[in-house]
Amino acid sequence: MIHPTRTNLLLLREKAASVANSVAILKARRQALIRGFLESVRPFVRSRDAIRRDYAVAIAELRLSRGHEGMASIEALAATAGREVGVDVEERNIMGVRYRDLTVYGPFARRPDERGHDYTVTTPHLDESIHAFESVLESMLEIAAFESRLKMLGEEILRVTRRTRILEERVLPRLQSQIHSIAQYLGEREREAYYRLKKFKTDRKAA
After folding, report:
1. CA-CA distances (angstroms) from residue 7 to 3, 4, 174, 179?
2. Cα 56 to the chain's mean position, in Å?
3. Which neighbouring-strand residues pair with 90?
4. Which among 53, 158, 163, 175 would be 20 to 30 A from 69, CA to CA?
5. CA 165 to each of CA 11, 42, 178: distance values in angstroms, whole numbers, following the listed order
6. CATH number of the domain enclosing 155
7. What's the confidence (pLDDT) of residue 207?
8. What is the count of structural domains for the chain?
9. Stretch 8-14: mean pLDDT, rounded?
10. Which residues pair with 91 in a beta bridge?
11. Measured between alpha carbons, how far is 131 from 135 in angstroms, rounded to an integer?
12. 118-158 per-position pLDDT tens digit
């Protein structure tokens, strides 16, 4: 129990004002983080949509190509069409939140004459399938770049939200309750002192 003195009352009021200011700062930070999260979500969602679209095309065209070229021929072409994919991973910072950013060196969708096989003897279905799978690869790498940022921003939003709730729903009400109790106690003491002084003056006059 805090001793009910004017000094402690002033200290509690200062602490309550500091907590209220911290809550306001945390709320502003949370809003900024949410804006950053939403800005990252939009391209993330577009990339996922592109993957679903391109993957559906790739599978459909691959099935048609298997009927014409045969699976053995397709696997042989795939074995000779491998290549290195250039990516850089670096740590970045957004509003104090660290995350790993992925820089992708594309484009990944190659022209038919860049794929290492004679496209004049294969069906268009095979070329369409390859193009769609290469687009899927590019979109998946784009998603990987957004996932780390979204994960870290999401965790920071939750952390700030929890801290804000603790200050707003536990710490601040407890301080306000203590302030009210001490202020009420001091007010009663002042009234008692006033009445005693008034009675003393009255008694002196009567004497």
Report:
1. 9, 8, 18, 11
2. 30
3. 101
4. 53
5. 23, 28, 19
6. 1.10.287.3240
7. 60
8. 1
9. 90
10. 100
11. 6
12. 666 677 888 888 888 888 887 787 777 777 778 888 889 99
Query: Do 77 and 118 meet the contact criterion of CB atoms below 8 Å apart?
Result: no
Range of the domain at 79: 23-166
Specify which residues 88 forms β-bridges with. 103
> Residue 170's closest CA among 182, 178, 181?
178
pTM of the model as a whole: 0.62
2 inside domain: no
Paired tokens of 89: 């991973």
Is residue 15 in some structural domain? no
**In the numeric block, which tokens belong to residue 102?**
């992925």
**pLDDT over 70 for what percent of the chain?**
88
Tokens of 155: 């965790």
Residue 140 lies in a domain: yes
Between CA 196 and CA 142 the distance in angstroms is: 79
Q: Residue for token digits 């200011």? A: 21
- What pLDDT shows up at residue 106? 66
Residues 99, 104, 109: CA angle, nearest 5 degrees? 145
Structure tokens at 57: 């095309």
Q: How many CB atoms lie within 10 A of CB 25?
A: 12
Peptide linkage before 124 cis (omega within 30 of 0): no
Close Cβ partners of 48 (under 8 Å, ≥ 6 residues apart): 139, 143
Phi, psi of 117 (to 5 degrees): -140, 165
E-strand ranges in 49-168 read 86-94, 97-105
